[in-house]
């Protein structure tokens, strides 16, 4: 969905490095989410935000941090990358009101490899 | 804890046949469910949703059935096409700040 974009699409980094994944949306949604996807484990929630400056931990927040400085942007940082953070990362947005407001709309994903 | 799981990790069907993908959930308080389709290299794409006050909902070639008694939902795809090949996820509303609980996914392969 071109309304939700993620950069970079692919990233290779080394253990111990700090990296940032960016998510931008033009859907005007208040709620934004970061997930990681591992083979056989489906999608797991890292952090989510209901509005600017609002930050909430998901089920696997350790080793990650996020920033929501603007409604359209939600960035995910790995403070000190480790190999088991190698995964596919997805950003998603969700409207607060409207039909099917629980539906989340996903970006194309960022494939991260930590060596 | 809450879980949403799928019965089978893979499903192979012949082109033109109907496909049925099943999903079980554990949270009886969940009142909203979604099916997503994820093609290789892409993010999950919304297919169809259903609320707990409904048993069935139909879209274009897809139908979702919800059985709250046994906490089970299914996705039926009519006249399956090669373009339907993908991983299908079910997700349920965990009733906690709008979080969705996702199943592991079922990979659907369509044989020509």
Structure write-up:
The complex is a heterodimer of chains A (115) and B (112). Chain A has 115 residues and is mainly β. Helices cover 0% and strands 53% of the residues of chain A. Chain A is built from no helices and eleven strands. In chain A, β5 and β6 form a beta hairpin. Chain B has strands at 4-6, 10-14, 19-25, 32-38, 45-51, 56-58, 62-67, 72-77, 86-93, 100-102, 106-111. The model of chain B has no long low-confidence stretch (mean pLDDT 87). With 112 residues, chain B is mainly β. In chain B, a hairpin with a 3-residue loop joins β6 (56-58) and β7. Chain B is built from no helices and eleven strands. The chains are: A mainly beta (115), B mainly beta (112). The A-B interface holds A 1, 4, 31, 40-45, 48, 50, 56, 58, 90, 92, 94, 100, 102-109 and B 9, 32, 34, 36, 41-46, 49, 89, 91, 93, 97-100, 102-105.
Low-confidence stretches of chain B: none
Task: Estimate what percentage of residues of chain A fall within beta strands.
Answer: over 45%
Number of strands of chain A: 11
Structural class category of chain A:
mainly beta
> Treating each run of at least 4 consecutive H or I residues as one helix, how many helices of chain A?
0
- Overall shape of chain A: it is globular
Brief characterization of the structure:
The complex is a heterodimer of chains A (115) and B (112). Helices cover 0% and strands 53% of the residues of chain A. With 115 residues, chain A is mostly beta strands.
């Amino acid at each position: 969905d071109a309304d939700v974009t993620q950069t970079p699409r692919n990233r290779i980094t080394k253990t111990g490095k700090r990296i940032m994944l960016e998510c931008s949306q033009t859907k005007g949604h208040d709620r934004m989410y970061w997930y990681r996807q591992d083979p056989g484990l489906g999608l797991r929630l890292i952090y989510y935000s209901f509005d600017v400056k609002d930050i909430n931990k998901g089920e696997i927040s350790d080793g990650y941090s996020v920033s929501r400085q603007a409604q359209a942007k939600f960035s995910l940082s790995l403070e000190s990358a480790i190999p088991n953070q190698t995964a596919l990362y997805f950003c998603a947005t969700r409207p607060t009101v409207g039909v099917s407001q629980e539906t989340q709309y996903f970006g194309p994903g960022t494939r991260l490899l930590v060596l | 804890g809450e879980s949403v799981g799928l019965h089978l990790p893979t499903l192979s069907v012949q082109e033109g046949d109907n496909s049925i993908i099943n999903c079980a959930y554990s949270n009886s308080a969940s009142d909203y469910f979604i099916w997503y389709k994820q093609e290789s290299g892409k993010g999950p794409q919304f297919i169809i949703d259903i609320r707990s006050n409904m048993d069935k909902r139909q879209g274009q070639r897809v139908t979702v059935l919800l059985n709250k008694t046994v906490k089970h939902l299914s996705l039926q795809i009519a006249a399956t096409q090669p373009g339907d090949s993908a991983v299908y996820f079910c997700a349920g509303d965990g009733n906690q700040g709008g979080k969705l609980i996702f199943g592991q996914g079922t990979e659907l392969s369509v044989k020509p």
